[in-house]
């Protein structure tokens, strides 16, 4: 129709408008005649149906789904650490991950001293063991890291001290091993060494401290530099659990006791009222 | 029906169904249970549908008896296939789109001097315009036809040219459609009628007015009646009649009038 219209416009310019009008004017009539004739064709032959069937089947769409798996890479271990950087480090005592800040770096040895932000104590760590972000590791991997961390910390303690001081360290570690000797050692060198008798007194106080006053939390040393003791051991936790269970059972028992007491009072009043009535009658 | 009704509606008053017919209908019920069983029996005897027999003699006012029926079923072999109907509907839709597309162009065209369109209210004028004087006056002058070899639209009727049809307004289309259908009700189907009906349906705009719906339904019923009276498949009118029924039923959504294969 569009082509026909264009032709008509072109022909009109030449002056054959009558013929073009008549030719295109009959579009409706031709459509009608075509429609009427198609029914006769449909009645005559069944061959017309076959090509339609061929045209019917359409092309099947192929769904090509691309699965892109993104691999997450952990922080590069070759990162250069500087004093004042924030990081995550495994504490040698329990192998847990804590936030820390670097206070000094030794590039030659590949070690540094980290200050645990949440707990306030310091420890010497290998630069390769520090982490920029806490990784999402499996339990097995975590255990493996713990084991490695323990070994590395032992080596560090052996290397970092002079023979005389190392001797003292060995002696102290033997006596105060459960109290966390690695956390105490880094703080000793910066301060001046005290005289022997005073040192012995401090040692005695430490021995006395944990027993009577705080079963799971040793007291802070006023004379020496401030330090936070390690987290409590397992036995106090177990005791606390028992205490919780005991208090729960006691509360159950007491609620039963109070209920029984109330019921008894009520019954007693009823009996008294009944006896009075019977006595009057 | 009763079983369905019992299942659908909740039972407000459970009464055991009376299997035995020990109770006689003549005696009055002696207890409430008997009464309820009487009610059940009478209800089961009533038919679901009751039609009243009206005596025409007793009617005071004269009422119009309108018997509206659907399209007559096509004789065997006369009805078109569903695929053919779908093709016709799609082509008809394309024709309508083309007409709307080129309406402005054809409106601007001037008609020849011999083309004088009647007024909308002039029913006889439109009949003469569409069918020609020969068909209207039922004059058969073979001699004159031989004498005049050229086209004389005044006598043979004007075909539905686009330049003519494009100038019709919707009210005129509806009016002319009514005139042609009324003419068709009393007379036979002629080729000019088929062309004009096709053209008018192509120009009829959707959505239709209720009057237009009534007109096209009337047309479809008339076409089916004429088709039922045809003698053979080879009749030239069969295609046109099927086409009209198909357009009305399939395109204008009068599906109750459609042909069933």
From TrEMBL, chain B:
Q: Give the principal location in a single coarse category.
A: cytoplasm
Subunit comment for this entry?
Part of the core SMN complex.
What does UniProt list as this organism's lineage? Eukaryota, Metazoa, Chordata, Craniata, Vertebrata
Q: What is this protein called?
A: Gem-associated protein 2
Give the similarity note. Belongs to the gemin-2 family.
- Nucleus as a keyword of this entry, yes or no, is yes
Pfam families to which the protein is assigned, alphabetical: SIP1
Q: What is the annotated localization of this protein? A: Cytoplasm; Nucleus, Gem
Matching entries from InterPro entries are given as:
GEMIN2 (IPR017364), Gemin2/Brr1 (IPR035426)
Q: Which GO terms describe its biological process?
A: axon extension; spliceosomal complex assembly; spliceosomal snRNP assembly
What Gene Ontology cellular-component terms does the record carry?
A: Gemini of Cajal bodies; SMN complex; spliceosomal complex
């Amino acid at each position: 129709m569009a082509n026909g219209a264009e032709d008509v416009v072109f022909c009109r310019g030449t002056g054959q408008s009558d013929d073009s009008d008549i030719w295109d004017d009959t579009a409706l009539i031709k459509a009608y005649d075509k429609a009427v004739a198609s029914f006769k064709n449909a009645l005559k032959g069944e061959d017309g149906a076959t090509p339609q069937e061929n045209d019917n089947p359409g092309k099947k769409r192929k769904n090509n789904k691309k699965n892109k798996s993104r691999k997450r890479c952990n922080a590069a271990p070759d990162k250069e650490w500087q004093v004042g950087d924030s990081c995550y480090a495994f504490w040698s005592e329990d192998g847990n991950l804590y936030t820390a800040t670097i206070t000094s770096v030794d590039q030659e040895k590949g070690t540094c001293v980290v200050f645990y932000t949440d707990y306030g104590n310091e420890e010497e760590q290998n630069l390769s063991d520090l982490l920029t972000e806490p990784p999402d590791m499996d339990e097995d991997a975590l255990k493996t890291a713990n084991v490695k961390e323990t070994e590395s910390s032992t080596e560090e303690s052996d290397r970092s001290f002079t023979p005389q001081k190392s001797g003292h360290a060995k002696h102290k570690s033997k006596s105060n091993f459960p109290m966390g000797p690695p956390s105490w050692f880094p703080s000793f060198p910066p301060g001046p060494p005290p005289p022997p008798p005073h040192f012995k007194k401090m040692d005695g106080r430490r021995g006395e401290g944990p027993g009577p006053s705080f079963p799971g939390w040793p007291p802070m040393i006023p004379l020496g530099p401030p330090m936070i003791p390690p987290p409590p051991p397992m036995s106090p936790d177990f005791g606390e659990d028992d205490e919780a269970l005991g208090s729960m059972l006691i509360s159950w028992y007491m609620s039963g006791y109070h209920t029984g007491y109330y019921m008894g009072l009520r019954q007693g009043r009823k009996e008294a009222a009944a006896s009075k009535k019977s006595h009057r009658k | 029906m009763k079983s369905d009704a019992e299942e659908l509606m909740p039972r407000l008053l459970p009464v055991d169904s009376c299997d035995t017919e020990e109770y006689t209908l003549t005696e009055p019920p002696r207890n409430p249970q008997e009464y309820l069983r009487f009610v059940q029996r009478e209800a089961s005897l009533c038919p679901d549908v009751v039609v009243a027999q009206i005596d025409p003699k007793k009617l005071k006012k004269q009422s119009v008896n309108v018997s509206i029926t659907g399209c007559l079923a096509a004789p065997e072999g006369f009805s078109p296939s569903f695929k053919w109907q779908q093709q016709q509907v799609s082509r008809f839709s394309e024709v309508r789109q083309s007409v709307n597309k080129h309406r402005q162009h054809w409106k601007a065209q001037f008609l020849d001097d011999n083309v004088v369109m009647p007024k909308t209210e002039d029913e006889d004028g439109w009949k003469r315009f569409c069918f020609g004087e020969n068909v209207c006056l039922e004059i058969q002058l073979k001699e004159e036809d031989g004498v005049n070899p050229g086209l004389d639209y005044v006598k043979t009727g004007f075909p539905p040219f686009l330049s003519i049809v494009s100038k019709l307004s919707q009210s005129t289309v509806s009016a002319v459609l009514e005139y042609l259908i009324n003419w068709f009700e009393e007379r036979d189907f002629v080729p000019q009628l088929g062309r004009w009906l096709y053209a008018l349906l192509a120009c009829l705009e959707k959505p239709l007015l209720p009057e237009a719906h009534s007109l096209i339904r009337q047309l479809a019923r008339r076409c089916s009646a004429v088709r039922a009276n045809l003698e053979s498949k080879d009749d030239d009118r069969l295609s046109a009649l099927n086409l009209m029924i198909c357009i009305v039923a399939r395109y204008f959504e009068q599906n109750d009038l459609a042909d069933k294969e």
